[in-house]
Design brief:
- The protein is α/β, with parallel strands linked by helices.
- The chain has three domains: 80 residues, Arc Repressor Mutant, subunit A; 110 residues, D-Maltodextrin-Binding Protein, domain 2 (3-Layer(aba) Sandwich), CATH 3.40.190; 93 residues, Periplasmic binding protein-like II (D-Maltodextrin-Binding Protein, domain 2).
- Helix content is 43%, strand content 24%.
- The longest helix has 26 residues.
- The radius of gyration is 23 Å and the shape is globular.
- The model has no long low-confidence stretch (mean pLDDT 90).
- One of its GO terms (molecular function) is DNA binding.
Length: 299
C-alpha cells in the first residue's frame, strides 16, 4: 500500500524541483524528505528518482504517480468533508492562513463568534504572504486561506481550489490630520511615503499608481506591516495607501481621501475543491462574513 503522506511529498518535489525547497516549504529537513521518498520507492517497487548533478529528477513512473496523487488527495478531501458532515457538532481543527490587515481587523471578531457558535471547533491561525499561503494550501499544510486581490492583479487562486468572495475593500489615501488636502496625487510629490515592498502586489500597485500620476515616491518606510504604515501616518511622518478596513480602529486623528478611480482590493476565502462542503469551512466562512459586516458597517 502506498503511503499518502509520502505521495504528497513526491507531488511537492514535482512542483518545486529540489528536495531542499520541499523541505523549506514543509518545514522538514532535506534528509527527512529524502528518507521518506526512499521509503516510497520501496513501496512502489520501481525507481521514482534519478540523480542529476547534485539533485534528483522524477522518473516517468514517478510522474505518472504524481498525476494520480492529485486525484487521491482530492478524493480524501471529499471523504473527510463527508465524514465531518455526518456528525452532529462542528469540531476538530481548522488551519487558517491570512495577511496582516485581516488578522488585525475582522479575524478576532470572527474567532469570537465562532467560539460561541461552535465551541468544539479549534482554529489555528498562521500569518503568511499570499504566495506562501497558497503553497501551503496546496500542500495540505492549511485548510483555508483568507486572501486579497489588488486592482489589476491576476487571480491568485490556483486550479483545484474554490474561491468565495468576502467583500470589496476601498483603498484610501491616508494623511496626517493637519496636512492640507491635495488636489491631486502630484501634490504629494515631495511627501514621504510608507509603502508595501515592491515584491508584493500592494507595493507594486501603489508604485504603479503613483508613477501614472508622475510621482516617484520618497519612501520613508518599506514594510508589509499596515499597522506600522498607519502609525507613521498618525504620527505625522508619512502618507500611505491604507485599506478602509483599517481606517476606523487604527487611523484616528488622520484624514482619508478617496483615490482617483475609487480602486478597491477584493477580499476572499479559498479552500481546496474537496473541502468546500466541510462543516468547519462553512462555519468559519459564515463567522467571517458576520465579522466583516460588524467591522465594516457599509458592507
Amino acid at each position: 500500500m502506498l503511503n499518502v503522506h509520502r505521495l504528497s511529498l513526491l507531488r511537492e518535489l514535482s512542483r518545486r524541483g529540489t528536495l531542499s525547497e520541499v523541505a523549506r516549504v514543509l518545514n522538514y529537513s532535506p534528509s527527512a524528505v529524502s528518507h521518506q521518498l526512499s521509503q516510497l520507492e520501496k513501496e512502489a517497487g520501481v525507481p521514482l528518482l534519478e540523480p542529476v548533478g547534485r539533485g534528483v529528477k522524477l522518473t516517468d513512473a514517478a510522474r505518472q504517480l504524481v498525476a494520480r496523487t492529485d486525484e487521491v488527495l482530492a478524493v480524501l478531501d471529499r471523504a473527510e468533508a463527508e465524514l465531518a458532515a455526518s456528525t452532529p457538532t462542528v469540531s476538530g481543527v481548522l488551519r487558517v492562513t491570512s495577511f496582516h490587515s485581516a488578522l488585525a481587523s475582522i479575524l478576532p471578531t470572527a474567532l469570537t463568534l465562532l467560539s460561541a457558535r461552535h465551541p468544539d471547533l479549534r482554529v489555528e491561525v498562521f500569518h503568511r504572504e499570499i504566495g506562501a499561503a497558497f503553497d501551503g494550501l496546496a500542500a495540505h499544510l492549511y485548510d483555508l486561506v483568507i486572501g486579497d486581490q489588488w486592482p489589476d492583479e491576476p487571480d491568485p487562486v490556483r486550479p483545484g481550489m474554490e474561491r468565495q468572495e468576502l467583500f470589496s475593500d476601498p483603498l484610501l489615501l491616508a494623511m496626517p490630520a493637519d496636512w492640507p488636502e491635495p488636489a491631486s496625487l502630484a501634490d504629494l510629490a515631495d511627501a514621504q511615503w510608507a509603502v508595501d515592498p515592491e515584491y508584493l502586489p500592494g507595493g507594486q500597485w501603489v508604485r504603479r499608481m503613483l508613477g501614472d500620476a508622475g510621482v516617484v515616491p520618497k519612501v520613508l518606510c518599506d514594510t508589509d506591516d499596515p499597522l506600522l504604515q498607519a502609525h507613521l501616518v498618525r504620527t505625522g511622518h508619512a502618507v500611505a495607501v491604507i485599506p478602509s478596513l483599517l481606517m476606523g480602529p487604527f487611523l484616528d486623528q488622520t484624514r482619508a481621501q478617496v483615490l482617483p478611480g475609487e480602486p478597491v482590493r477584493r477580499l476572499f476565502t479559498a479552500v481546496r475543491d474537496g473541502q468546500t462542503g466541510h462543516p468547519a469551512v462553512r462555519a468559519f466562512r459564515a463567522a467571517l462574513a458576520s465579522a466583516a459586516r460588524r467591522e465594516s458597517p457599509d458592507l
